[in-house]
Structure formats: C-alpha cells, structure tokens
Amino acid sequence: DPVDVVALRRIALQPGGFLNNDLRRRVWPKILGVDVFDLPKCERCQSVLPCKCLVSTYKDQIWLDTERSLWKMSMGERQTIRAHQREQLFRIINCVLARNPALCYYQGYNDVCSVLQYVCGSRSAVAIAEKLSATLLAAPHEKTFATVQGVMELIFTLIRIADPELSAFLTASGVPMHFALAHVITWFSHHYDTPPLHTAARLFDVFLVSHPLTPVYVTAAMVLQPGVRSALLGGGIACEMSAVHGLLSRMAEPSPEELEVIIARALALQHDHPPALHLATLHLPPGHPYLTYPGYPWRQITRQPPDHIQQAAAAHRVAVTNRIAAQ
Question: What ranges in the chain are assigned the alpha helix state H?
C-alpha cells in the first residue's frame, strides 16, 4: 500500500528510527516506492530479479568483491549457506548494473547491497538498489570520484566551524579527506557490518529519507563526538597523518545512545549549513540527482504509515530519549 513518505521520514529521523529489521524490511521499500508484490522481472527468463541471465561488464570485479563479502553477516553459518548468499549478492549487483549500463561499479557498492540483502531480501534489494543508484548514491557511480571528493571537502569545513581546535589539529596532521571515503560511499556499512547491523541499518533509516550529502554530515558529527575528539587531542594519538588517518577511518562503533546523539548533531549541522550552499561550489551539471533532491518521483506518496508502526516508533522513541537523558 502507498504510504505518507513525510510521516515515515519523521519516524526515521526520530530516536530509534524504524526500531528493528523486521519493520525495516516492510518500510524501506515503501519509502522508495518499491512494490514488493510487483518487483522487476528479467525480460529473458521472466523470473523476478535477481537472475542468472543478466551480465554486467563489471561482472569479474563484482565477483571478486562478493567473494570477500558477508564474512560477519554469515558468521556461524555453514559454508554452503555463505556461498549461496554471496551468489545472491553477486546477482543483485550484476542485475542492477546490467539493467543500468550508465552506472559504473565501485568497490563498496557490495557493502551497501549487502545491507539491503540482509534486511530486505535479495528480490527487494534489486529494486531498492536501483532507486538508490539513480538518486541518493548517484555520485559514486560516476566515471570519476570528482563529485564524491568535492562533497567530502564539506567535512573539514563543518569541523572547522564547529571545533576550531580540533580542525587545527587535523590540519597540522596533514590527514587527507580520504579517510571518510568508505564512510560516505558505503553509508558506513563497510565497517559497521556485524549482525544484526544496529549501526548500519539505523544510519540507512536516516540516509534513505535525507539529502544525499547527509552521510557527509554524519561523518563530521562522528569526528566531533567526545570520544574521538579526546583520542585526538588528549595526547594518545600523534599529530601525524598515518596515525590520525587510521583512527578516523576506523572509528569505534558507537553505542545506540551515542549514535542517536551523532545523528541529532549531524541533522543540526545540516540545518545550520545546508547542503545546497556547498553544492553550489561544485558546478554540477543541471539535472544532477544531488541538485534535483527532493524531487525524486518515489517521494510523492499520499497515505499514512500503518498505526502499529507509528505506535511502536513512539514508544521506542520515549525509551531511547529517557536513556539518553539519564546518562
């Protein structure tokens, strides 16, 4: 059934988001306008995607990356089950790129699709990944990473505004902005991939309903969190590029309560320093998906989400808020 994407966005951005992966499996497709009862089919074999028929020009690289994927997500499973899951992941990515030849494959897309597969299943993952690759994740699929590099420059700008002392330390260390590359292009799924994906799935809640640059703001908010700041400025880390890069590229997974604080700070930064101001400096071509947000077709929805989702979200939101206040 169609749902009110505005109401779902409110739930996604409130503490706890969509609560658990069972609800996400039902809600994520609705947010993106994916009808799970009418999923795309292969024109050759007429089976619901993913299938074996479609072959992408990137199939060899995709296979290499999927063979290195799902170690944590399939932990404790038999080798045959892991092999099947990897085969399905390969088909998901291969189908998306074969159906959309203008998209370039990038390392890290396998991590994004792994989360979609884990939460929503292989069939829904194809349709969801196609929507994301054409809109919110359009930049990493371009022929070069010029746009990605351009948007990542905003991270240092936000840190400089929010914390001049920390900014001066990072500048003195010479750490490049590339520490954030995996965070931004995989939506943090490359590092935070331990089931049941509390951090990655919660961040996907936010990213699915937000501006394409929101992962940049979350990255800045993670660097600004007290634990990371004290590790950098407290003398435990040398003011040297490799040491600082190592810490920032592998920031410890936050607790659920810490994550909500990070999300709130990221959204506050985004409100105070809108993405449009930075995008205006990048000279993107007219019609670029990052410029057309929020005019994506799948955001034009009318009906309210089911009452039980709203009620469960409200109850969880109160519990999380109380835990944060008690700290």
Answer: 5-13, 21-31, 59-66, 79-99, 109-120, 122-134, 146-162, 164-173, 181-186, 198-208, 214-224, 226-233, 241-249, 256-272, 275-279, 289-292, 307-326
